[in-house]
Amino acid sequence: MIYPTQMTPVSQKSVAIIVAHPDDETLWVGGTILRHLSWKFFIVCMSRQYDIERATKFYKALKILSADGIMGDLDDGPQQAPLEENKVQQLVLELLPPVHYDLVITHNPSGEYTRHIRHEDVSKAVINLWKTGKISASELRTFAYEDNKRAYYPRPERNAPVYQILTKSTWLRKYSLITKTYGFEKTSWEAQTTPRAEAFWQFTDPGEAVKWIEQEGVKT
Fold first, then answer.
1. Cα 23 versus chain centre, distance
2. What whole-number distance in Å separates Cα of residue 78 and Cα of residue 76?
3. Deepest in the core among 102, 118, 126, 194, taking most CB within 10 A?
4. CA angle centred on 65, ends 129 and 31, rounded to 5°
5. Could you count the other beta carbons within 10 Å of the beta carbon of residue 173?
6. What is the pLDDT averaged over residues 6-14?
7. In this predicted structure, which of 74-78, 119-123, 151-155 has the lowest mean pLDDT?
8. Cα(178)–Cα(166) distance, rounded to whole angstroms?
9. Would you list the domain boundaries of the chain?
10. Is the pLDDT of residue 39 over 70?
11. 197-203/140-143 β-pairing
12. Own/partner pairs for 182-187, CB < 8 Å, 24+ apart?
């Protein structure tokens, strides 16, 4: 496993992406990764380390994305009760190389759709680790998607400060990762969801990000 060791030039940003599940890195930020192949990406997947099928697909996806990464074994059973935040934080710190990042990207505090508690758990843990200085980063972004309480497939938030429409070729590469590398049928939720644009809420002040947790928590 190759870990980033120092902050890289702006043209080669050092970026940590911290997600709950294999395929989250592709669904919500895959186009951004494909558009910036000169950046140094390290992807932390918090669960399914011992799920041989999904772990194998995750590492194949990393090769295509030219990214390094690692998986953990966060509880992801059918009983989706919130986890103790200190345990989620501890696992993040065990998996994430302790270096400074230009940018950290993770889930939204209210998730990307209605409703996945593990997305919420991971988001809150990462933001609070940034606030306390246990994750060192110049900027933090959270995914900006919503589904209007399951009224439609998740859509990127058009009013988010970072909103990027993917070119057809980039989207097709992303879609191929979902349907061929991860093996989801074209009629699956994942394939139907695969966003053609990617959006992010953006923070440079950890205090503002923590306020965001509180605001988003009201919605869940």
1. 9
2. 7
3. 126
4. 80
5. 17
6. 63
7. 74-78
8. 16
9. 10-219
10. yes
11. antiparallel
12. 182/22, 182/23, 182/26, 182/57, 182/61, 183/57, 184/23
Rg (CA), the chain: 16
**Fold classification of 10-219 (topology level):** Rossmann fold (3.40.50)
State the chain's maximal CA–CA distance in angstroms: 44
Whether pLDDT at 107 is above 70: yes
The pLDDT score that the predictor gives to residue 1 is 40
| Predicted confidence (pLDDT) at residue 5 exceeds the cutoff of 80 | no
Given a contact cutoff of 8 angstroms between Cβ atoms, the answer to whether 156 and 199 are in contact is yes
Cα dihedral 173/179/182/183 (nearest 10): -150
Query: The tokens of 62 are what?
Result: 């990393």
Is it the case that residue 13 has pLDDT exceeding 80?
yes
Sequence-distant contacts of 63-66: CB under 8 A, at least 24 apart: 64/173, 64/177, 64/181, 65/25, 65/26, 65/30, 65/33, 65/34, 65/41, 65/177, 66/33, 66/37, 66/41
Q: Is the dihedral of CA 107, 108, 110, 112 positive or negative?
A: negative
Tell whether the model's pLDDT for residue 218 goes beyond 70.
no
Rounded to whole angstroms, the Cα distance separating 36 from 39 reads: 6
**pLDDT tens for each residue of 140-158:** 999 999 999 999 999 999 9
* CB neighbourhood size of 89 (10 A): 20
Does the predicted TM-score (pTM) go above 0.90?
yes
